[in-house]
Write a structure and sequence with these properties.
Helix content: 55-70%
Low-confidence stretches: none
Number of helices: 13
Largest sheet: none
Distance between the termini: 48 Å
Number of strands: 0
Radius of gyration: 20 Å
Strand content: under 5%
């Protein structure tokens, strides 16, 4: 990790936008066109910083101890940023976090919740690699991720219109996380991340790699049904959000994973190593039409 002189604010913004565009074109344009104008630069910083952290933790180089040391440095930096005493000996990606927190004026803002919950998500990923996990741990994992994403969405888009606070607030994103883990199961297995609980594996005498076993297919089916139920409740919540841009971004995000649910069902719950068709024109049209139908409250 190379330590460089602090970036001027405009260069920090340019770096964050470039990292975001390179990593996710969809995220880049969502931020560019839907985020509140005064928060666009910080939205890029928020995405780019954790993209960098995640890439560092997923890297094949470095030992487990190295990754823990790296993450502990980031956790300490986050705490120092909110105490307004961050070190000046930082790499340029870490400077993104400093600039982001410097612009956060709310003591209990959505940005604060996003940063701390995402850091907890990263910590769990480091800790769970190479071991089976319990159902309660996976549930907490989804809760942390759903809280982080929802809080970020509602902080950066329509932050002048406070969203309704109720028990269904995080359900849509919890559903997307369940689908995300199903989609990435084969790839995650190869990397040592197991997305099915230890209890279920033991009860059915299977391993995380028995993805074509009837018991495993039944588990996938149950997760698909759970995601659909969460989407239904989450959609009801999204309709209550006042800001139109925030509703649009939320429905578009959910629609991407609803398309994925359809693909899983068509495959009779057999998981694939990859789903390149989700980037096809046909998939894009379906997501767009489903998003529009959601905004108009039409069944699609």
């Amino acid at each position: 990790m190379k330590i460089l002189a602090p970036l001027p604010d405009d260069q920090s913004q340019d770096l964050a936008a470039a990292v975001t565009r390179r990593s996710s074109t969809q995220t880049y344009y969502t931020i560019r066109f839907l985020v509140d104008r005064e928060l666009v630069s910080d939205a890029y910083r928020a995405y780019a910083y954790f993209r960098w952290v995640d890439d560092c933790l997923d890297s094949e180089t470095g030992t487990r101890a190295d990754k823990w040391a790296f993450l502990q440095r980031q956790q300490s930096l986050l705490d120092a940023c909110y105490q307004r005493n961050a070190s000046s000996s930082l790499c340029r990606e870490e400077q993104l976090l400093v600039d982001l927190v410097r612009h956060d004026t709310g003591e209990h803002s959505g940005l604060h919740a996003y940063l701390h919950n995402m850091m907890a998500v990263m910590a769990f990923d480091v800790e769970r690699r190479g071991r089976l996990v319990f159902e309660a741990e996976l549930n907490e994992y989804s809760r942390l991720l759903a809280t982080a994403v929802t809080e970020a969405l509602q902080y950066f888009i329509g932050h002048h219109c406070p969203p309704p606070c109720c028990e269904t607030r995080y359900m849509a994103v919890m559903g997307t996380h369940i689908v995300h883990m199903l989609r990435d199961t084969v790839e995650d297995n190869a990397a040592g991340f197991y997305n099915v609980s230890q209890e279920y594996l033991s009860a059915n005498n299977i391993t995380p790699f028995d993805i074509d076993h009837p018991a495993y297919l039944e588990w996938v089916r149950s997760r698909v049904e759970l995601a659909r139920a969460l989407f239904k409740q989450g959609r009801e919540y999204i309709h209550q959000v006042q800001n139109r841009r925030c509703r649009l971004a939320a429905f578009a995000y959910v629609s991407r994973f609803e398309w994925m649910l359809r693909a899983l069902e068509k495959d009779a719950y057999h998981l694939r190593p990859a789903y390149p068709q989700r980037r096809s024109l046909q998939a894009g049209l379906w997501v767009g039409l489903n998003t529009l139908a959601s905004l108009l409250a039409v069944h699609f």
